[in-house]
Prior knowledge:
A: mainly alpha, B: 8 helices, globular
Amino acid sequence: MYFFRWEHRVALVLAGGVLLLTTFELIRKRRLREEYSVLWILTAAAILVSGIYPRVLEWVAMKIALHPAVLMTFLCVLFLMAILLHYSVVISKHSEREKGLTQELALLKDEIARLREEVKEARKAPPEPKPRPPALRT
Amino acid sequence: MPQEPNNGRAGRQVDLGGRRALTIIPAYNEADCIQRVIRDLQERAPWTDVLVVNDGSRDATGLRAREAGARVIDLPVNLGIGGAVQTGYRYAREEGYDVAFQFDGDGQHRASRLADLVGPLLAGDADLVIGSRFLAPRGMTARGMRWVGIKILASVISLVLRQRVTDPTSGFRAAGRRAIHLFAAEYPQDYPEPESLVLLRKQGLRVCEVPATIRRRRDGASSIRPLHGAHYMSKVLLAVVMDLVKAPVRLEEEVA
């Protein structure tokens, strides 16, 4: 007994093919970085393969006593969760980076202000070497 | 260390033995009390430089702090208490400070008590000194659920650190060079005080507590660390457990 009919297979191949092409096109246009595209390419390839060789999926489904439709749904959810987890990792990386950059920016702005101040002082009274300006003025 | 003018007022003189000290004040919308806090420090602890980290305030916090004569770092966006304090530690590392204090911008900490914190640092007995409200003779300020929460948290932290800690949420602390370098490289974001103790422990740094009385908060509720009982507790405990399993931080350079 086969579950996948040819209409299903055509639909799977089309879906996988379109997803794969879209991913490649986005990379080509530099709108998607390769490092973020790995999971999408894998997903597209998996859909494509299950359209071309649906017997593999049916065999696995039989072995673990699941209806092939349920197996498909389960695999979809698994891929989506993997992609979401990947996003969380990327977001964490970016927020850590953003925090560091924000701090660096604030520290540099302070340093520029201090250097400006020093330059101004030096122009006023050139011969006198100036020590670090005190942080406290009372 | 350059001696700052004392303005004729008697601040307890502290001999840092040539070491330089910085007081880090994270401030978010504290325009109303920041000047009072800075003046308190200038009068009672003139031996420390004052750095206000203005955490993207929407009011005149930065302006008021500059008027009062503090050095001010303006964060262009709000990073939260952890990110603001870490900015101060990065500044302290870059400028080569030997001691860095954490001090609240809302006036609840007493500048006159800063001197109590440096003792164990100078003696080389600790890398971080916590000013504990609960060791002070009449310093108990927390009540009811808040008290229970801090007690539970204190026992968990004590267990993790294998050392008695009474006030893990205290934001009144002094860090030595090793702690400054560690915190500049890595500082927790969400519940920085208790979490940073776990971080110190994992890196093999030493923590100790000294008694410190604090003032009752004059205006506003605790906006920085609201203790929402069970909710707060569970989140801190989860964060602490996660801190325990995290890989240790690799510091760029060894600190003598």
